[in-house]
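Protocol step 4 of 6.
Sequence for ABC transporter ATP-binding protein (Streptomyces sulfonofaciens) entered exactly as in the expression construct, tag removed. Do not edit the line below.
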Amino acid sequence: MRLSGRESSGVRLPTMTFSGVLPESAPVPGARAASAAPVLDARDVHVVRDGRPILADVSLTVRPGEHWALLGPNGAGKTTLLSLLGALVHPTHGSVRVLGRTLGRVDLRELRTYVGHVNPRHPLRSPLPVREVVLTGLTNSVERLPRWRPTAEQEQRADLLIDTLGLGPRTAARWPTLSQGERGRALIARALMPSPRLLLLDEPATGLDVAGREQLIDSLDSLAAAHPELASVLVTHHLEELPSGTTHAMLLRDGRTLACGPVAEVLTSDLVSTCFGHPVRLARQDGRWTVRARRDA
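Step 5 output, structure tokens:
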């Protein structure tokens, strides 16, 4: 573990036999195919807006098969960092390489095709059925493009992802009728349609009840098991929302890295208490975390 600066090599997940639930990820032209090559590499990143520092001296390396959690209080810079990793914004200083491409030297529209970005505030207004919503992941559009028609293979893939995420009975259900949890899982399926190598999730459990949260977490663990080379970064305020397959974590406070590395070394009672400015006690059972206020502090 490190307390600042660059990330350590960390933990690699064991190789798993691909079961056919998800196809192999599409390669990025010009990117190295070696599994050891980082999918994300941010070095000494600073972001300044209107003269105010949002991120300062943040470094992060994510490799295939790693599942990262970005945690911190409101205003810590988590969403800004996720936007950098998803090639949505540029750093003021420092460098960000996504799938082997350096931001500022690559067509961002092409690069975003290979990054699955899940935003729970998806601005869809039309009453599209679940399958149509998932298929828009291929066109990177909110609505279905008028002249675009999916192939039979693409429709089959959409149905497979819908089933994998537990939405099979809701394939024909229209967007306004879906629960918040069902929408979240539909958006994950949408993000996975182009076979990305990287999945970014911005507070995916926001607004979910207990059942919806647990279904979402189970779906994320199933995806990690089915597609071991897929890397992910999940932003949340709540440790209870982390899947059991989380391998690494970064704690952000006031735009700076407090701790970063393998999850067992970062998610400790002392470090999380410092990050959130309140004494807490962490416990982990069956791979999941719980947090309670420390009364003896």
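Step 6, annotate. The helical segments are 78-85, 108-112, 130-135, 152-164, 180-192, 210-226, 263-266, 269-276.
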